[in-house]
Amino acid sequence: MNKEIVVSGIRSTGYLHLGNYFGAIQNYVKMQEEHNCYFFVADYHALTTHPDPKELKQNVYRVVAENIASGLDPEKVALYAQSDIPEIPELYLMLNMLAYKGELEKVPTFKDKVRLQPENVNAGLLTYPVLMAADILIHRAVKVPVGKDQEQHLEMARNFAARFNARYSIDFFPEPQVYRSNQDTVKILSLDGNGKMSKSENVNATIYLNDDDDTIRKKIMKAKTDQGPSEPNAEMPDFIKNMFLLLQLTATPDITAQYTNAYNNCNIRYGDMKKQLAEDMVTFVRPIRERAAELQKDENAIRKILKEGAEKARPSSIATIAGARKLIGINYY
Length: 333
Ligand code: AMP
Ligand code: TRP
Description:
three-stranded parallel sheet; globular; binds adenosine monophosphate; binds tryptophan; 2 domains; mainly alpha; Rossmann fold; Tyrosyl-Transfer RNA Synthetase; about 55% helix; two-stranded parallel ribbon; single chain
């Protein structure tokens, strides 16, 4: 039986964090067994913020190491750098002709960037969703494991696919769907209650896979809490819900049940809960951090993984571009 095609990418813009792990990588690891997986480091996407060249390279190597340390097996998937697949920018160019300025300007992540970096609103930022669509459509993928923050981008990828299909009267591109493991796609909030965990923002309230034990403990002990509920079974504020989510993701079910009951009975002690969460988090992150550090010592091995990953990802990219060129009418010889 043909395995379903899966694509996902992570930008090489900084250290990976719990949001990346639970929103994306954990699903990659689950999917690698039964799908035809293409996972890549989105280094072209990282160029929108003009990174320092040396830093970009280290970031790419680290993203690869941290993915493998989290359980991704480069023998089972194609793990590559976006910039090693020249067919991606070619498809991006083709799709740009089907993407409209008005719809791109309305994308919430674009509007956020305009607000955050008004001095650098480049065309790469505007067409970010088109490049992302090219990443996915180049393999004609059907499933895309991403966190909740990427759902809108995926909807645009479906629109571009449908537009291409309609223009050339053929079902050439399938419409890719967000992959959900069992529950909803996850969103991990920042521990200070301001937005989500992120590679470059909220750094003191984001837990990175590279954080040492004490840093993890300190960040969790400083997490935002409140006075506690004043009536039984009260609705949780988002930042408390987030702490419970982290507990559920890293602690045993009985511990989570114990604190949930305490919350529902109005006798929760957040200090105790944080201490518990800190220890479970330390136990969770430590092996990933140590393994990633080990892997990063051998840059030759990482380069080999990227090279072999690109070799695995090229054939389907070449086939897609050949098909797209023909449909468009670029077949002169
Ligand atoms: P990025 O770090 O923006 O390149 O994101 C890489 C992957 O991690 C994407 O699938 C995102 O949806 C996911 N992701 C990033 N931040 C979070 C977060 N705070 N919660 C859940 N998923 C996230
Ligand atoms: N835009 C994604 C993010 O910021 C990263 C990404 C780029 C991606 N291309 C992709 C994710 C293709 C899934 C599929 O998180």
